[in-house]
Amino acid sequence: MTFSISELFNKHNSEKFDLHEEHLNNQMVRVLKTIGYDRCYDRAIGQYLYDQQGNEYLDLLSGFGVFAIGRNHPTVIAALKETLTLELPNLVQLDVSVLSGLLAKELLKTTPENITKMFFCNSGTEAVEAAIKFARYTTKREKIVFCEHGYHGLTMGALSLNGEHIFREGFGPLLPGCSAVPFNDLAALEAALENKDVAAFIVEPIQGKGVNLPDENYLPEVERLCKKYGTLFVADEVQTGLGRTGKFWAIDHWHVKPDMICMAKALSGGFVPIGGVAITQKIMDTVYNRMDRAVVHGSTFSKNNMAMAAGLATLHVLEEEKLVENSAKIGNEIIQSLHALAGKYEFLKEVRGKGMMIAIEFQAPRSMTLKAAWAMLEAANKGLFCQMITIPLFKDHHILTQVAGHGMNVVKLLPPLNLTTKDRDHIVTAMDKTIHETHQIPGSIWDLGKNLASHALKNKKG
After folding, report:
1. Can you tell me the mean pLDDT for 70-84?
2. Is the separation of the CB atoms in 14 and 40 below 8 Å?
3. Which of 207, 270, 380, 384 is 20 to 30 A from 460 (CA-CA)?
């Protein structure tokens, strides 16, 4: 009997929710069914998902930014197929690989000139773990400073730098010596660094939870303060890197030179887990300072041929299809078009972002009828209004989006970088119509709101 993934998928695709309820995270299944996202997708191409009925969905979530070049890109598929058939030596361990050397070379062409070395791993959180260890060993200091509301991963070290309480609750005690400062607050950062006992300050150039942008002088001043107090400056570009913000790295918007850049997500085109840390020569030479320390930090599956081949192919696609430029152009047009709606709708506060990393923030309205409806949702669960945007976008317009974070009235767009002008127009039109409907009381969208509030209150009591 032959083994066929195709047969298994086709036979069991409709059973996937039952399988997860029985064997995996049943709470995730409950969430999907509650908000009406329980679709059975058959295939995915580029920026689109297709369900069993042949309906097309515009994916503005892109696997939390993993599918920056679109889903199932043929160039990466071809590279992986070729790698599988070449019978290459892989993970010999007492050897070094060609493909990892080539990927490191190509990535380092994109980084600031002070960064000349690469360390590969399997994920963004692993990259952050490596950065913590490298910083402590290089500086001989223990403390790590991070930003409130920042997100750096969920393993224990990275979790210790997570600025969102919901992720940390109940998992302590966490890594000692880690403390938070407000994002965009230079005075607070200097106060945290001035004792010259902090190994590293780690920061997302643009915060993923909420898409919070820094002031123009923030990151340049971060670089200056870190140098002044002997603290390593770590840029977490796991989400913002590889063209997401309209530059190859988000730090390029502010022309700063961190000591380390953490990367992952988009690097393999979404096919193979991969992460990495780009570092200075000094850090590399300090951590790996003797032959007996050549394996002092590593990861079994890092530098595997499939991940490296996918990474090389992804970089080729980004350049060949000018996706970084497209991210800047189309992303800016979406931001401007949606921001123009702010004067039209009371609920819409602002639209902000860079490139294809976009936040649509909502606020309490002025008029009494709308204000009462808003208060009803906020009392049930803070940030619930955004579900009245994302659910109709999905159900009525076949656009997949996400809420930017817990307790936030922010909808986040994190689409593939290959969006077209047609996609742009569809997003703007659908968002305009959906926000308009939230201003119609009574209306079907507020029937949804009442149901969401009822579910939220039941969960609180439960």
Report:
1. 98
2. yes
3. 207
